[in-house]
Every structure is written in structure tokens, then in C-alpha cells.
Amino acid sequence: MKKENSGQKQLCVALVFNLQRKHANHERNYIETEYDSEDVILGIKDALELSGHKVILIEANRNVIENIKTNCRQIDIVFNIAEGLNGEGRESLVPCVLEMLGIPYVGSGPVTMAITLDKARTKEILLQNGIPTPPYQVFNSTNEKLNENLHFPLIVKPVAEGSSIGITSESVVQDESALRLQVDFVLKTYKQAALVEKFLPGREFTVGILGNEKPHIMPILEIYLDKYGHSDGAHTLEDKFVVGRDENSGVPKNLSIKLRNRIKEFALQTYRVLDCRDFSRIDIRCDKDNEPYVLEVNPLPGLNPKAADPSYFVKTARLAGMGYAEMINEVLNAALKRHNIDAGMRMQEFARELQTQ
Hints:
The chain folds into three domains: 12-107 and 341-356, Rossmann fold, CATH 3.40.50.20; 133-198, Dna Ligase, domain 1, CATH 3.30.1490.20; 201-331, 2-Layer Sandwich (D-amino Acid Aminotransferase, Chain A, domain 1), CATH 3.30.470. The chain is built from eleven helices and 14 strands. The chain has helices spanning 38-50, 64-71, 93-101, 110-117, 119-128, 176-190, 237-242, 257-273, 312-319, 324-339, 345-356, and strands at residues 12-17, 54-59, 77-80, 105-106, 136-139, 154-158, 172-173, 194-198, 204-210, 216-217, 221-223, 249-250, 279-286, 292-298. The strands form three sheets. Strands 9, 10, 11, 12, 13 and 14 form a six-stranded antiparallel β-sheet that branches. Helix 1 crosses helix 10 and helix 2 (64-71) packs parallel to helix 3.
């Protein structure tokens, strides 16, 4: 691929990732649903090389620490998209390793990664900061009493999964019996607590944000829930394999200025209070009265470059007039500016020397 003459110093960028080797779903190797395909990895690599950077590919497998240390002398910055392997802190693993080795990286830090993976902890922080999020309860067993402030319909989902993992056509429940069955399904299938949340029947939106000191809020993207044919308006994992993202989302129609401003305001507040860095995506849904609530935060948003099925963050960037390569390099540039990469190079090299002695 021909390189652009960007006038920017050539850097050695390590792209750290988890590779999705086969089609995955919530019942079989569901964890791989969040991993990235070869198309994504090569798309990011090509985008970085287009700006003149050298790119090293490092898979975040069980040898990731050794592989990063082997290459750390030549790495200027890591572009981290790794989801991690196991456990509640899996998305924090690579950021922790990089901070230990003194290597700057793209994306949010370990604390933000850990908190945003846990939907309940995220909601606690949102509520403490006056940001609306649906009422909820965490179930660690099927026999816990339902809080009296929660009223049906409710939605049941794993407390620490993304990409709609664990959300099925049975997730929206209308009574106690269905609630207990779905909580039991989550506990047994995903070996983690179930988040039971007030189900919001209104419109759903997602907002991409890029940058740090003055974050850029990209155009709001609406998820067209009617494309799925569910009477309850659920957005399931299976849906994402049936209806492509370029078909199921687009520019919101008939969105009032008031609602548009509130969505942007809540998205930006969420980005800041959770200390997101460089880029993230915020999911928001409305209740029956068209009042918006923050559902969750995605500090590792998907970056699928395919024109026919772009990830939501990529699509919001496209609506902002950014091509894929431009968007990837804007994310990198946000991290470079945040790290003050040139001024800090000697200190980083010194830290790496200490770690490799």
C-alpha cells in the first residue's frame, strides 16, 4: 500500500489484539465473539502503515508478556485492541503489562477497562455523578428477592460481557417465573452474576467519542430496532449475525434538538467521569417517554472496516466525514498527544531498560 506523506515522524507501533479464529456465539466459544477478525487487524495495520508507521503484530495470548518484552526496545507506542483471555479483569491485562514496562499505549487505562466491563460498577459511578441509567439489581443466585422498585418488564444479562453476549430472545422477562429462569441461565452459562435491569422500550442510540482534552463527539447513530422483528425491542447477539450493522443503523430521523443535545451531553459526561481515553463508544436508550438513559460504555469499540458491515464506531466516524485510515490515525494521534510522545521518549526508554535487565 502506498504511504501517505503525512509529515509525521515514523513510529514503530505494536498492534496488540485477540484473534477470532472461528465463528463464535454465546453458546460455543462465546468469548471469541468480542475478538477481532483478521480483516480488522489487517485494516488497522494498513491504516497505520498508510501514515508511514512500522507495525508489529502481537497476539494477546498466554505469551503476550514475553512477546511485548521481546519487542519493547523498538516499540514507540502500542495500539491496544486486546479483549483479554479470562476473568473479570481481562480487558485490563494488556494496559497493566504496558504500564509495568513503561510503554505508552492507545486507549483507556486498567481501571477504566475493569470498571466498564462490569455493568453494575459502571452504573454505580453513573448514578453517583447524576447521569441517568436504568434501575437495576445484581443477582448472584436465583432465589434472591426482587427489589420492590423494579417493575416488569425487565431485561436479564451477564454483568460482565459485551457485544450483546448473553442477550437472547428470552432476555426480556414479564414475570417472576421468567425472571428466575433467565437468571439461572446466565449464572450457569456464563459463571457470573446476572444484571437485572428495567427494560426500556424506546429508541436506541450509540455515540462515538474521539480525543481527550477536547473530545470530539461524532454524529449520533440510531440502532433501528424494528429491523430485528422482535415485539419487545430486544437487541440480541443472534441479531448481529442476521442483520448487518450497515443495514440496522443509520442517521436518526425526527430527532428533536432537545433529545439530540441530551444524548450528546450524557455521552460526554460518561466519557469523562469514567476517564475514557482516546476513543470510546457510549450506548444510550430511551424509555417510553423518550427520556435517554446510558446503558453501557465501550472503551474498546469494534473497528471492523468492512463497508458492508462496519462497526458502529467506524460508522459514526464515517458520518463525521472520516475515512477508515483517517479515523485510525486520529485515534493514534490522540494517544500520542496525551503521552507527549517525543518529550517522553528518553524516560520511556530508560524504564524499558530497567525492566529488561
